[in-house]
Amino acid sequence: MGLEIFSLEGKSAIITGGSKGLGESMALALAEAGAEVLITSRHWDEVSETAERIQTATGKRVLPLQSDVTNATDVEAMKHKALDEFGKIDILINNAGINIRKPLLALSDEDWHQVMNINLTGPMLCARSVGRHMVERKSGRIINLASMLGAVGLAERTPYASSKGGLIQFTRTLALEWAHYNILVNAICPGPFATPLNRPILESPEKAAPLLKEIPLKRFGEPKELKGAVIFLASDASSFVTGTTLFVDGGWTAH
Description:
By secondary structure, the protein is α/β, with parallel strands linked by helices. The chain has a single domain (9-254), classed as NAD(P)-binding Rossmann-like Domain (Rossmann fold), CATH 3.40.50.720. Helices cover 45% and strands 15% of the residues. It contains eight helices and seven strands. Helix 2 links the parallel strand 2 (36-41) and strand 3. Helix 3 runs parallel beside helix 4 and helix 4 runs parallel beside helix 5. It is globular, with a radius of gyration of 17 Å. It starts with 11 loop residues before the first strand and ends in a 7-residue tail after the last strand.
C-alpha cells in the first residue's frame, strides 16, 4: 500500500465557508488530491472568485454556491446541487464559522445566538441533510472544523469556545451513531492561524503577544499547514479513524 491511500480521485466534497482562510486552503487541498469540490459562502462574489481560482490551479471541477448554513432550505439546496453535479457526496467539511470577541457582560443575546447558530447549529443541519445520502450509500466522511478553544479556555471567547466544545461532542456522538453505516466523523481543532477571522489579532502586536507566548512553535499557523490534516481525514488513509479530534495548534494544548 503506497501513497495512493491519500488520493481523492473520483471523490466529491462539500466545504462550507470555503471562500477564504482555512476553508479555501482545504478546498485547494482536496482538489489537488483529486476531488471535485462544491464550496459555499454567504457572499457570492467571494465564493465564485475562489472557485474559479482553485479550478484554474488544479484542473478539477470546483463549483461555487451562495448558501447560509443556518438556513435549512439553503442546506437542502446545497445537498441537491452537489448531487445534481457530482452524482454523490463522499466528503462533507463543516467549516463555516464566526467569532465574536467580547467579555461576557458586554455580550448581547444576539451575539451569543449568532455564533451558536453558525458554529454549531449549521454543522448539525449540514450533517443531518448530507448524512441521509451517506446513510443510504453506507459510506462517507464528515469533518467538523472545531478549535483548540473547544478544549481549552481563553478569556473573551465565551460563545466561540462554547460552540466549538459543543462541536467536538457533536463529532464524538455522531461518530458512534453512524459508525455502522461506515460514515467516519472526525474533527480538526486548529490553533491560531493567519486567517481573515484572526485579522484583528494579527494586526495588533499587543493582542498577538499573549497568544504567541502560549504557542511552543512561537508563530501563527499558515492556512496551507492544514492541508495534510484534511487530506488524511478525507482519504482512505484514515479508514480506521472516527470520533477523534486532531489538534493542529503549534503545540498549544500540549501544555
